[in-house]
C-alpha cells in the first residue's frame, strides 16, 4: 500500500529570503536552489540537499503539495523531481489532478461553505471596514473562497488580530497570521479533507504530513504522523499533539529535517 506524504510548502519546505533563518557564518551557509520566480525575481528557495531529498521522496511515496496558495501562485513553483500527480491548493478548495482542478471536488467544497458558514462577502466587508490603511497594504480574495490582508507587521496592532479571530469564530471562520499575511478562512475549507480524498483515491496505507501554521493543524491531526518546524504559528503557541513531532530546527534547515523524517518513516512502511 502506498505512503502518502502531504506537506505544506511556504515556511515548511520552501522559504523566501526573509524566512531562510540562516544563523551560520556566510561562508558556511548551505547552497540554495531557487524554486520560484515572481515578476522576474527569485522568490522561494530550498537547500540543494533538500532538493535531493525531495526528489528521492517522490520516488518513494505519493508526494502531495498541500498549500493555501491559489492555483496561480502554486504553478509558479518548480519543485525538484517529477511533477506531483496530486496537489492541493487554496487550503483544500482545489484538488489538482495532473495540474487540473477536479470540478466535482470543488463543487463539494463550495456547497459545504454555502451551508456551514458566513459568506465571503460578509467577511471581506468586515476586513475592509476594520483594517487600517496605515498597516493594511493589500486586500485580497483568493479563488473566491477566502480573504487575506498583506500587512506591515511592525505596525499591526496585536489586539486587532485577536478581535478578528473572535469575530470570525462566531461566523464559522478562522484567522491565521503568517508572516505579513492575515488570513480569514472558512472552517469547512480544510487541507485535511482534501488529503483524505487523495488517500482514498490512491489507497494509501500511511499518511505523513508537515506544516507550520494554524491552517496546518487539521492536516497534522489527520495524518498518522506529522512534523512541525521550530518556527511559525504552531511553534510560537507551543501547539503539539501525540502524533506530531515538534522539531527544533528553524528556517530552511527545518525543511531538510522534515524531508529526512518523511523518508525515514516512508521507507520502512513501504
From TrEMBL:
InterPro entries named among the record's database cross-references: HAD-like_sf, HAD_sf, TPP-like
Q: Hydrolase: present as a keyword of the record?
A: yes
Which SUPFAM superfamilies does the record match to this protein?
HAD-like (SSF56784)
Q: Does the keyword Endoplasmic reticulum apply?
A: no
Coiled coil spans: none
Residues making up the signal peptide according to the UniProt record: none
**Name of the featured protein:** HAD family hydrolase
Amino acid at each position: 500500500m502506498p505512503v502518502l506524504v502531504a506537506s505544506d510548502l511556504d515556511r515548511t519546505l520552501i522559504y523566501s529570503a526573509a524566512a531562510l533563518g540562516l544563523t551560520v557564518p556566510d561562508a558556511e551557509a548551505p547552497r540554495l536552489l531557487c524554486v520560484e520566480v515572481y515578476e522576474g525575481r527569485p522568490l522561494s528557495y530550498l537547500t540543494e540537499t533538500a532538493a535531493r531529498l525531495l526528489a528521492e521522496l517522490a520516488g518513494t511515496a505519493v508526494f502531495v503539495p498541500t498549500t493555501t496558495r491559489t492555483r496561480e501562485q502554486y504553478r509558479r513553483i518548480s519543485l525538484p523531481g517529477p511533477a506531483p500527480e496530486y496537489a492541493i491548493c487554496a487550503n483544500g478548495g482545489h484538488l489538482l489532478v495532473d495540474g487540473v482542478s477536479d470540478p466535482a471536488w470543488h463543487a463539494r467544497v463550495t456547497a459545504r461553505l454555502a451551508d456551514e458558514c458566513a459568506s465571503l462577502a460578509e467577511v471581506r466587508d468586515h476586513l475592509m471596514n476594520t483594517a487600517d490603511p496605515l498597516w493594511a497594504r493589500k486586500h485580497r480574495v483568493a479563488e473566491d473562497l477566502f480573504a487575506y490582508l498583506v500587512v506591515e507587521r511592525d505596525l499591526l496592532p496585536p489586539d486587532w488580530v485577536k478581535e478578528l479571530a473572535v469575530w470570525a469564530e462566531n461566523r464559522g471562520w478562522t484567522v491565521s497570521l503568517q508572516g505579513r499575511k492575515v488570513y480569514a478562512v472558512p472552517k469547512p475549507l480544510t487541507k485535511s479533507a482534501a488529503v483524505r480524498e487523495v488517500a482514498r483515491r490512491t489507497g494509501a496505507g500511511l499518511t505523513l504530513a508537515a506544516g507550520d501554521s494554524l491552517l496546518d493543524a487539521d492536516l497534522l491531526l489527520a495524518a498518522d504522523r506529522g512534523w512541525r518546524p521550530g518556527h511559525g504559528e504552531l511553534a510560537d503557541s507551543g501547539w503539539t499533539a501525540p502524533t506530531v513531532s515538534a522539531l527544533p530546527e528553524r528556517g530552511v534547515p527545518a525543511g531538510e529535517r522534515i524531508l529526512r523524517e518523511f523518508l525515514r518513516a516512508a521507507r520502512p512502511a513501504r
